[in-house]
Amino acid sequence: MGEPQLTFRCFFCGEQFENYDPVYSGEYTGTRGMYIGKYMIEACDDVCYASNSDGWARRHEARLITHLTEIGLPIPNRNAEGLLPRD
Question: What's the whole-model pTM score?
Fold first, then answer.
């Protein structure tokens, strides 16, 4: 049995991942993710982080703004596309 690892859950889709690197055991067995410090969230790299390179999709905004407000972080200025910046 391998060493226990911390697990993380994507803030947006709920996908669970064990670490921030691909998980391999002969073949791909898990997902990886990113920690985005300015938002204090983890996001899976499979879909949520990778598909929002131009900014967080509008469908994520309400939850993200609520989260930022609850933890006392500022809401970033929108980028040129009118979206909250991903990074």
Answer: 0.76
Q: How many whole angstroms separate alpha carbon 51 and alpha carbon 63?
A: 17
**φ, ψ dihedrals at 68, nearest 5°:** -60, -40
**Could you tell me the residue ranges of all domains in the chain?**
8-71
Residue entry with tokens 């469908």 = 59
pLDDT digits (tens, 9 = 90+) for 9-52: 999 999 887 665 555 555 555 567 888 999 999 998 878 988 99
Cα–Cα distance, 31 to 21 (Å, whole number): 8
44 strand-pairing partners: 33
Instruction: Output phi, psi for 51, to 5 deg.
Output: -85, 5
Q: Can you count the helices (H) and strands (E) in the chain? A: 1, 4
